[in-house]
Amino acid sequence: MTHDELMTLPVAVPLETANRALHLGRTTGYHLARTNRYPVRVLRHGRAYKVSRYDLHRHLGVAVASESPSGAEA
Length: 74
Prior knowledge:
Layout: H1 3-7, E1 12-14, H2 15-21, H3 26-34, E2 42-45, E3 48-52, H4 53-60
Antiparallel strand pairs: 1-3, 2-3
């Protein structure tokens, strides 16, 4: 998954998308989620597993560009 794809992810992504970002296979990813050993927090939505974009970005060390703290233009 490219950096641009990571930056445009929705707030919560299906486990399969998170698996792709983390370079995990489908079977391994679901096994880790079922056994509570997935690298990031997994959310259950009915029978589906989802991962928050925030947790995924944080685990991967992806920084989001933000405004300067002082609010002044450079």
